From TrEMBL:
UniProt-listed Enzyme Commission number(s): 2.6.1.42
UniProt xrefs under InterPro entries: Aminotrans_IV, Aminotrans_IV_CS, Aminotransferase-like, B_amino_transII, BCAT-like_C, BCAT-like_N, BCAT_family
Annotated TM spans: none
Stored CDD domains: BCAT_beta_family
Pfam families in the record: Aminotran_4 (PF01063)
SUPFAM superfamilies attached to this UniProt entry: D-aminoacid aminotransferase-like PLP-dependent enzymes (SSF56752)
Keywords: Amino-acid biosynthesis, Aminotransferase, Branched-chain amino acid biosynthesis, Pyridoxal phosphate, Transferase
Domain of life: Eukaryota
Name this protein carries in UniProt: Branched-chain-amino-acid aminotransferase
Length: 443
């Protein structure tokens, strides 16, 4: 601050976040050092790796999200330039966690949130606003409370080794969110404008982005129908909001970092013509009791099967991948196709694009069935099985309990596991260890 600047209470209040950030950054320099050491170690390991990170994206291998087509009677769209900010007072600011390793998942929230209301009767989307984190007030008839008119996204902000904060392929999340909005009778919006508002929220709460490469700030954009009427109909009033939560690792794993799964064909997560391919809250509540059943059997996740042939669809809240030796004797990475039963995961899409670009092994989107898994295991051709998603990047699988039998998967026994290479490549992009168009810097 220059001496010319008149310092009054208003200036101090307006700049409190910068001051706090400055003080905390000085205090946290120690943990930054450990990040730099990790970066150095990573670079040394990289020189031994078979796979190079390609910093360009070959568009032949990526699915750019399609622009959303809004309903004719949607009304006004919101713009980030209309964003209004009401900062929390110093007394409202919460202490930030000291130990990033003990964060767990989604238990703590930052000081602010983003809110954008939609009211058809007022012309459409209203002005976006950032406010202190606060409870929502709604009518007890609000559609979200009765018909689960709700959808959400899961994204993360990562503090890079260069100190910059990045989010990963946010255009993909926005596209997925709008597709779910269309299916739920909720208003659509311009994803780019939402990301600009979100970037401002992240800048305000930036000190909550953990200073390590083992934790991150989870971003939970949510869209709910809030009309105070009981008809099962499109929402004429809605709330699009986002909260932020510093997170460590999502899943409980076994001692070697791998997960064990319950595969019970009597439970189904999604079905043809349903909404298994959309991130709607209504898909998740019915999985909770099955997850409890898995836990009671000492298993960490549920492997969701579908159909007479027991197709593998998803694992917990992740897409599933298998690395194996195919009938032609070639190494191949396979994942189920986007046939409506599967969430079009952004991690899934990135893994497919990356490994196709590497060209080191075959890559295929095709059905995987349990009989196929059993046969490949018996023949020693199944090399790795892993889940993939934003929460954990990749999660290796070492055991499946299927029809009362334990199948042991040798994922953790491979000398140079493919899932590790994938994890390293993706986290290097997320934490800015390599410059890549998928890692979008917040400024
Ligand atoms: C059911 C389900 N499958 C897969 C995923 C992985 O998707 P993404 O890679 O976009 O996080 C998620 C998490 O969002 C999920 O909830």
């Amino acid at each position: 601050m220059t001496t010319k600047m008149a310092i009054n209470a208003k200036d101090i209040f307006r700049n409190q976040h910068r001051l706090i950030r400055f003080i905390e950054q000085s205090i946290r320099l120690c943990s930054n050092q450990s990040l730099k050491a990790a970066q150095k170690q990573q670079q040394q390991q990289k020189s031994n790796a078979d796979f190079e990170i390609t910093t360009s994206i070959n568009t032949q291998y990526t699915n750019a999200p399609e622009p959303i087509k809004h309903d004719k009677d949607l009304g006004d769209l919101f713009k980030a330039s209309q964003l209004q900010v009401r900062l929390a007072s110093p007394q409202q600011l919460q202490p930030k966690p000291d130990n990033d390793e003990e964060l767990g998942f989604g238990k703590l929230f930052t000081d602010h949130m983003l809110k954008i209301y939609y009211h058809k009767s007022l012309g459409g989307w209203q002005k976006p606003e950032i406010t202190p984190l606060e409870n929502l007030v709604m009518h007890p008839a609000a559609k979200v409370l009765h018909y689960a008119v709700e959808l959400f996204e899961g994204m993360k902000a990562y503090r890079g080794v260069d100190g910059k904060i990045r989010i990963f392929r946010p255009d993909m999340n926005m596209s997925r969110m709008n597709l779910a909005a269309q299916r739920s009778g909720l208003p659509t919006f311009e994803g780019k404008e939402f990301i600009k508002c979100l970037s401002r929220l992240l800048t305000i709460d930036s000190e909550w982005v953990p200073h390590t490469d083992t934790a991150s700030l989870y971003i939970r954009p949510t869209l709910i129908g809030i009309d105070p009427t009981l008809g099962v109909a499109s929402s004429d009033s809605a709330l699009l909001y986002s909260i932020l939560s510093p997170v460590g690792s999502y899943f409980k794993t076994g001692s070697n970092g791998a997960v064990s799964l319950l595969a019970d064909p009597s439970y189904v997560r999604a079905w043809p013509g349903g909404v298994g391919n959309r991130k709607m809250g209504s898909n998740y509540a019915p999985t909770i009791n099955v997850q409890k059943e898995a836990a009671a059997k000492g298993l960490q996740q549920v492997l969701w099967l579908y159909g007479e042939d027991h197709q593998l669809t998803e694992v917990g809240t992740m897409n599933i991948f298998m690395f194996y030796v195919n009938d032609q004797g070639e190494q191949e990475l396979i994942t189920p196709p986007l046939n409506g039963l599967i969430l079009p995961g952004i991690t899934r899409d990135s893994i497919l694009a990356m490994s196709r670009q590497w060209g080191k092994f075959k890559v295929r989107e095709d059905l995987i069935t349990m009989p196929m898994v059993c046969d490949l295991l018996n023949q020693g051709r199944l090399l790795e099985l892993f889940g993939a998603g934003t929460a954990c990047v990749v999660s290796p699988i070492n055991r499946i309990n299927y029809l009362g039998q334990d199948l042991y998967i040798p994922t953790m026994e491979q000398e140079k596991p493919v899932h590790e290479l994938i994890r390293e490549t993706l986290t290097d992009i997320q934490y800015g260890k390599v410059d890549h168009p998928w890692g979008v810097v917040i400024d």
